[in-house]
Amino acid sequence: MSQGKSEGKRIVLASRPHGEPTPANFRLEDYTPPVPGDGQVLLRTIWLSLDPYMRGRMADGPSYAAPVPVGGVMEGGTVSEVIASNNPGFAKGDIVLSRAGWQTHVLSDGKGLAKIDSKIAPISTAVGVLGMPGMTAYTGLLEIGKPQPGETVVVAGASGAVGSAVGQIAKIKGARAIGIAGGKDKCAYVKNELGFDECLDHRDPNLAAKLKEACPKGIDVYFENVGGAVFDAVFPLLNAFARIPVCGLIAHYNDTEAHAPKWAGAMMRNILTKRLTFRGFIVSDFAAMHGDFLRDMSQWVREGKVKYKEFVTEGLDSAPEAFMGLLKGANFGKQLVRVGPDKA
Fold first, then answer.
1. Under a CB-based contact definition with an 8 Å cutoff, are residues 41 and 110 in contact?
2. Whole-number Å distance between alpha carbons of 21 and 223
3. Looking at the whole model, is its pTM more than 0.90?
4. Do 76 and 49 touch, CB atoms closer than 8 A?
5. How many Å apart are CA 10 and CA 73, to the nearest integer?
6. What secondary structure letter does DSSP report for 222?
7. Which residue, 145, 193, 201, is CA-closest to 173?
């Protein structure tokens, strides 16, 4: 995407989707980047993170966060360069973690910005393994899942940004890690590159039987990213006192109506008799652990104990198609959009 210094681009929510998002729900707009006032900085987006939670922000139903207004810029985590500053806390050329959303330039008063040290890891990891997805894996698994040595941890979406980290952390903690992912290539990567004990294809018609075979002692922790048929295969294998951190339900994000499944009664009976712990969480619930997360995860990445994969599309205008693909599992690793070069 060619872009002169004087022009900006942004993608706004043109309309709310009903079911799966379509290109018509997004609109690309040109605008003139603003000039920073007193105490402000002008940011230029380098990396945009695309994440499943954004589907919820496109809807106007009740949720843990306000929806993106129709006509508003799609929101998202970003890595940005400070290209002009009237704020003593930031200098031109600083690289920062920001929430600029789906746009090339944005003004900030500096609140909520965090400087990124490129010496620790590539700056893109600030919205990946060393950012929100990595912290989601770290906090959800360790605070809710609490894996113990020798226990069996199963994670759905195992090749994605969150799931891949969950399984690797489980291994670090001495547990068995069983992944579920979409397709032979992703499963081979999860097992051979990331070191999971096994990885199963969620498209396999024999998933339930193969999962039972891979978990001969049952499942102690199930990190839920998906829901749907994967959960159906997992649920009968949950051991007494199993812990289920509920991070995402990507199989249901495009559902157009809510209804209780026929087996809801049986599920509640099992929650009672097996004393299961289901806990939904949002990563911000564990904001106080950010320092611990950065310390541990950066060390594990540096030592090669946690590996990561990035799936990059080029140019802001690629974001809608990439996001729609993400919801269908088209990405292989952390979905990123390279909005601009590392340095202006």
1. yes
2. 26
3. no
4. yes
5. 7
6. E
7. 145
Give the chain's radius of gyration (CA, Å): 21
Angle between the 290-303 and 132-139 helix axes, to the nearest 10 degrees? 100
Element housing 273 (H / E): helix 264-273
**78: nearest Cα among 19, 36, 126:** 126
Q: Which amino acid is at 67?
A: P
| 322, 335 Cβ separation under 8 angstroms | yes
Query: What distance in Å separates the CA atoms of residue 271 and residue 222, rounded to the nearest whole number?
Result: 14
Query: 287, 274, 272: which is closest to 236 by C-alpha?
Result: 274
3-state secondary structure of 46: strand
- Which pair of tokens denotes residue 127? 């919205």
Cα–Cα distance list, 104 to 14, 138, 200, 220 (Å): 18, 30, 39, 44
Q: If we measure between CA atoms, which residue out of 25, 16, 97, 26 comes closest to residue 56?
A: 16
Query: What is the per-residue pLDDT across 147-196, written as a single tens digit (0 to 9) for each?
Result: 999 999 999 999 999 999 999 999 999 999 999 999 999 999 999 999 99
CA gap 4, 231 in Å, rounded: 48
Q: How confident is the model over 236-253, as pLDDT tens digits? A: 999 999 999 998 775 555
CB 105 within 8 A of CB 45: yes
Q: Which residues pair with 12 in a beta bridge?
A: 27, 73
Mean pLDDT across the chain: 91
What sections of 72-131 are H helices per DSSP?
A: none
Segment 51-82, tens digit of pLDDT: 988 998 898 876 667 889 999 999 999 999 99
12-24 in b/e burial notation, b at 16+ Cβ within 10 A?
bbbeebeeebeee
Quote the CA–CA distance of 317 and 242 in Å, as a whole number: 43
DSSP 191: I
d(CA 204, CA 200): 8
Three-state SS string over 155-181 comes to EECCCCHHHHHHHHHHHHCCCEEEEEE
